[in-house]
Amino acid sequence: MKRIITLTVQDRSGVLNRVTGLLQRRQFNISSISVGPAEKEGVSKMTLVVEVEDDQRLEQVTKQLNKQIDVLKVSDITDKAIVARELALIKVASSSQLRSEINGIIDPFRALIIDVSKDSLAVQITGRPDKIDALIELLRPYGIKEIARTGLTALQRGHQPQVNELATFSLLK
Amino acid sequence: MNVEAKLEFQTSTAPKTGADLLIDLLIKEGVETIFGYPGGAVLPIYDAIYRAKSRIHHILFRHEQGMIHAAEGYARITGKPGVVLATSGPGATNLVTGITDAMMDSLPLVVFTGQVARAVIGTDAFQEADVMAITTPITKHNYQVQSITDLPRIVKEAFHIASTGRPGPVLVDLPKDITSGVLSEEPEEADIDLPGYQPTIKPNPLQIKKLADSLAKAKKPVILAGAGVLHAKASEELTAFVEKHKIPVVTTLLGLGSFPADNPLSLGMGGMHGTYAANMALYESDLLINFGARFDDRLTGNLQHFAPFAKVAHIDIDPAEIGKNVPTQIPIVADAKEALVELLDLPVSPPETVEWLEKLKQYKQDFPLWYKHDPNGMCPQWLIEAVHKVTNGEAIVATDVGQHQMWAAQYYTFNQPHRWITSGGLGTMGFGFPAAIGAQIAAPESTVVAIVGDGGFQMTLQELSVIYERNLPIKIIIVNNGALGMVRQWQELMYDNRISESLLHTQPDFVKLAESYGIRGVKIDNQEDLIASLPELFAYDGPILIDCRVLQQEKVFPMIAPGKGLHEMIGVKPE
Ligand SMILES: Cc1ncc(C[n+]2csc(CCOP(=O)(O)OP(=O)(O)O)c2C)c(N)n1
Ligand SMILES: [Mg+2]
Fold it and tell me: Which residue out of B100, B379, B422, B429 has the highest number of ligand 1 atoms within 8 Å of its CB and is therefore the one to mutate?
């Protein structure tokens, strides 16, 4: 199963290496990882999407991450009410004739064309990973030249529903 | 002006360097001994050591691997961090085995490595190695000092991290320009700044209560005592708890001595070469209480057959160990001593264990450890018993890795804590002899015995120079079977006797070898001579090497073959 784990870490040299090295050594697969400065100076936030077999392995991965001296906090937010986004840039082969057709496809996704050249254009989309996957599939017939994705980043919502009102929905199939 | 006075003069006026500051900080941490080896990148530190000669003690080893194992032996006996100093590049990489060993066996070390100057880091400069990357997975934490103003904090944190919680090695990489740099002013006192490191020491009272309730109901409780009991210095509390409730105790390889072996409630060591009674107790138990052991695979055997009927309680200071290998119903994150004190305070009705204890007593009687004497030579098991006798069972025993290690664990019964030094998790050949050196430095008044194999001894024997130089009266027992015995045993039993590259056809003359280092050496090849001479050899006031020729075909039994469960031991009785 895929889990979303957020880490608050001290912004010290080597901390990303500590986290990824640990996951590799303990045989956890990283689907994506995104890192950036957090609200407090000297602190960074990482969002990991990891593949784990079962609850026991999930418990291991969070405990091992917690053991790192530079890791301040580990949260598995998969089952929480969260907002989660990824950004993707997609370069699509396109002549000027096709431009408006492509525009029609990306519009419902609230994606933007952010670069245009003679024979290609670049689309920017933000959203949940499944939404990005869907757009990529729709653009594929035109010829995708390049994709760059940031990996998921996520926040817990301000209001966390009580357990009974939480409709479990899966972000990550 | 004589030379001495001139030196005094120089030291008092020389400006203070980063290296001088480092030495001051070490002294402030209470460091008495540095286990070190010099080189280019640490020359500024050696210069500071020269200046600080009267205030701190440095021991020069002959190989970085030897010195770090010595620091491990020192840490095992004192509970204090062993302090290691090596140069950059090859000096640092020679430490890798020892750092990993300390990580696996939770030994506190603070390791200082030299590094090339900051300006050339990353350029493949002479003797540059990426020590931070190399040691990240094998240290509890590591630092590269980027600014001299950070040094006081980093040193303080390094000692704190190494010695608290679950102990382990911490490495501090010191670029040469930091240690050679002249201080413009004395840096300020530093505070530890570790918001991400707060080990849990006190147990959760609800969990303790849960354990007490389960204990009251148990019919077949058993305690597994690991090295965590020793790190917590909780042997007395463990014994009090065991006596109060009459619970049988199994110790792990590294937990030997945490509970007296001669106590009737002791079942001895569990695991691959443990006793039948110990392993059957774990197998049949209905409540397994693990104090500070990490359920290593050499202890558990096949996990599917491990304690299949037991509710498991696990007390460990490292939460990540709980539930890692064995599903645990009562997890208790705590220091073993704190947990035992809480447990002792609770009014628990003692479990009804009479029948259980009777059964285990029968196992002990019916299936004791065994070996057969052979008129053709010396039995290694008997040799260990003889060493036990001549030392009244009170020596500090350091072993190497192999058959002799298992025989030492089985036959040198430990009734006191902090007497046993062995490489458990990593199983590092070459560990035993230098570890004994560290132990003798830590406990100059104690009898220290190094029980080593003829194979492993040859991996770090260069440290004979150190025991000669320091006149450390270590008794080296080479259990000489002319073989990489443990490998030979596995090949005989599991590979249909295809003995592949595990016999040592040529060996040095160990007696002459010892003598060439200035050390007394003796060779003994039969039991009569051993009995006759051992008291004198042990009374000898100085280092001595005793090359004991033992029977090559002897095997370590009983045994759980790989993939088998605790209840499937082989060799529990003589054929
Ligand atoms: C550094 C290292 N290399 C290889 C091994 C594998 N190994 C384990 S026991 C053993 C044989 C040790 O022989 P010896 O030191 O003579 O001890 P014995 O088993 O004969 O008592 C070997 C090669 C190891 N544990 N460590
Ligand atoms: Mg041997």
Answer: B429
